[in-house]
Amino acid sequence: MTKSPRKLILGPIHVLAPGRSSKLSARSSKSKQFCSNFEESLPEYRNYQSNLKRSLYEQEER
């Protein structure tokens, strides 16, 4: 019984801690950068995937 209220109290404090917030913002900017890189590389990946499937089909036909 004593553990759950303590967790409730600690939760918001951790979110509001100044050290944490800067780390979180840095992390979010990193993830945004990763997402943009991922979106840019998606067409290339799809192209690679289709080429791979095509080569597999050609091997099966032989």
Backbone shape: rod-shaped
* pLDDT < 50 stretches: none
What's the assembly state of these chains?
A: single chain
Give me the number of helical elements.
2
Helix-strand layout with pairing:
Blueprint lengths: L2 H14 L1 H44 L1
Structural account:
With 62 residues, the protein is mainly alpha-helical. The protein has one domain (3-61). It has helices at 3-16, 18-61. The radius of gyration is 23 Å and the shape is rod-shaped.
Question: How would you briefly describe this protein structure?
Answer:
With 62 residues, this protein is an all-alpha fold. The protein has helices at 3-16, 18-61.
Descriptors for this entry?
single chain; 2 helices; mainly alpha; 62 residues
